[in-house]
Design a protein that fits this description.
Belongs to the bacterial ribosomal protein bS16 family. Keywords: Ribonucleoprotein, Ribosomal protein. It comes from Segatella buccae ATCC 33574. InterPro entries: Ribosomal_bS16, Ribosomal_bS16_dom_sf. One of its GO terms (molecular function) is structural constituent of ribosome. There is one protein chain. By secondary structure, the protein is of the alpha+beta class. The protein has a domain at about 5-95: S16 Ribosomal Protein, Chain: A (2-Layer Sandwich). It is built from 4 helices and 5 strands; from the N terminus they run ββββαβααα. The chain has helices spanning about 55-60, 70-75, 80-90, 95-180, and strands spanning about 5-10, 15-25, 35-40, 50, 65. A hairpin with a 2-residue loop joins β1 and β2. The termini are far apart.
Length: about 180
Amino acid sequence: MATKIRLQRGGRKGYAFYRIVIADARAPRDGKFTEKIGTYNPNTNPATVDLNFDRALYWVEVGAQPTDTVRNILKGEGVYLMKHLRGGVKKGAFDEAAAQTKFDAWKQGKDSANNAVREAGVKAKKEAAAKELEAEKKVNEAIAKKVADKKAAEAAAKAEAEAATEAPAEAPAEEAAAPAEA
């Protein structure tokens, strides 16, 4: 039986979520599979992979052929590195402890790089939100200034109108008083 390690699509339309499965090469993409060894969510940054490392390593060592995408996922998780290191142990190049030390050092570097990417994304989002807030504050200040200017202009126009209505009323009273004195 030709065994493949491949992705089985799930999720909804426009939001793919995959299971990493072991299946016969002749089985349909979303059909019957032998074993589920993990999940892959490409919608997060960086993509989230939940993998049963030991089972993936077992299937790679017994000859299951991964698809291109799954091969990249397995390389990213270190399955192929561990296979390589185990081959070195079998040949006597180094012992099991040295292989595990090398793998742990690689995994630690990989995890720190992923954390740096996550932190950079969070920092970028915070900076974008701060810039957006500043821009909104500037727009609101400009609107508040326009409203204040408009209210001041309306108040000045209202004061002029009141002064204009009071001034003609006072002028006839003065004129009426002036002829009475004469």
